[in-house]
Amino acid sequence: MLDILNLDELEARARERLDPMLFDYIAGGAADEWTLAENRAAWSRYQLLPRMLRGVANRSMSTTVLGTPISMPVVVPPMGFQGLCHPDAETATARAAAEEGTIFCASTVSNRSLEAIAQASGGPRWFQLYVYRDKGITRSLVERAAAAGYSALCLTVDTPLAGPRERDRRNNLRMPGHLKLANFDESHTAMHHHGAGPGSSLAQYITAQWDPALTWKDVEWLRSIAPMPVVVKGVLAGGDAALAVEHGASAVVVSNHGGRQLDGVPAGITMLPAVVDAVARRGNCEVYVDGGARRGTDVLRALALGARAVMIGRPILWGLTLDGADGVRAVLQRIRAEIDLSMALAGCATLDDVTSDLILHA
Ligand SMILES: Cc1cc2nc3c(=O)[nH]c(=O)nc-3n(C[C@H](O)[C@H](O)[C@H](O)COP(=O)(O)O)c2cc1C
């Protein structure tokens, strides 16, 4: 098993294994990467105030998201092109998540089809949707996800266009030709290799295919065609979280897409309290957060501030790069161990004990 000291050290280890162009695609962020750095820095602004002598010999961190039991409050977020990391791609990550008792969210732009991922994992799974200009494509993805047992639709709303990834422009990023957008047939994926001129072919694909005209009305349309709950991923403003609930979302992810979209925006954890406040006044909506969460203490901070679960992105891909499904399992086991120890030291036997007074000045 991959020996992991902490999640942060994995980036440097994975860098040694990957083509620099592909490493940059995964590690990089938008423009000056201010938000990318802020995502990591923001967590430590919340100081933890532990409680003593509360009897923490028996601890549990199991919980549920949208009614699905998970073994810890960590969910694997949607990340495209996992074939860049390992030949087993998304099937390995999905299997690892299932074995560790949590949810794998499959990206629209996966290198394995959503059906193949479902078959490989057998575990609880969500499908992340990018909405195509061609409504027929969108509708077909939703129907296929429902048929393949995906229990939630995760609609990513922060990507009307590809973000300004300067590392990718500098490297003239081209995805390796053998990696297919496995949810689509050849005639569709061929477009993705036709990119020419400045910018990456992926950015050109996004511009050509994804619908920048999307509005909150389309969330209602999706709700009407999807038999499963809709999770809106990529809100930062409390007002947007409120709109998500009003238009039928069952959950929101407070996220800036790992610092890959609009540079200069705050970290998800910074906006979490405002979002929690906005949705609390509108009934039943779960709130998740992501962006730079790397420590068990980060997960504790998020839960204390009102999140139900945390998504941890890039370290999963580094684990996949280093040791396939076993590497992803090792990453999930390391974060589980950190959450468990942090809970004990903070005086929390269960997640119900992780309340807002765990944060200084909350
Ligand atoms: C390489 C890469 C690919 C991603 N692909 C997607 C995607 O297809 N859909 C999506 O909604 N988010 C995507 N994301 C964003 C992640 O879901 C998540 O919000 C982010 O990685 C969390 O930040 P972290 O990596 O700092 O933990 C991607 C992120 C990375 C690093």
Q: Can you summarize this structure?
A:
This protein has 14 helices and ten strands. It has 362 residues and is of the alpha/beta class.
Describe this structure as you would to a colleague.
- It is built from 14 helices and ten strands.
- With 362 residues, the protein is an alpha/beta fold.
- The strands form two sheets. The protein has an eight-stranded parallel sheet. Strands 1-2 form a two-stranded antiparallel ribbon.
- The radius of gyration is 19 Å and the shape is globular.
- It binds flavin mononucleotide (FMN).
- Flavin mononucleotide binds next to loops.
- Low-pLDDT runs: 194-198
Record field, number of beta strands: 10
Percent helix, as a range, is: 40-55%
Order of helices and strands: HHHEEEHEHEHEHHHHEHEHEHEH
Bound molecules: flavin mononucleotide
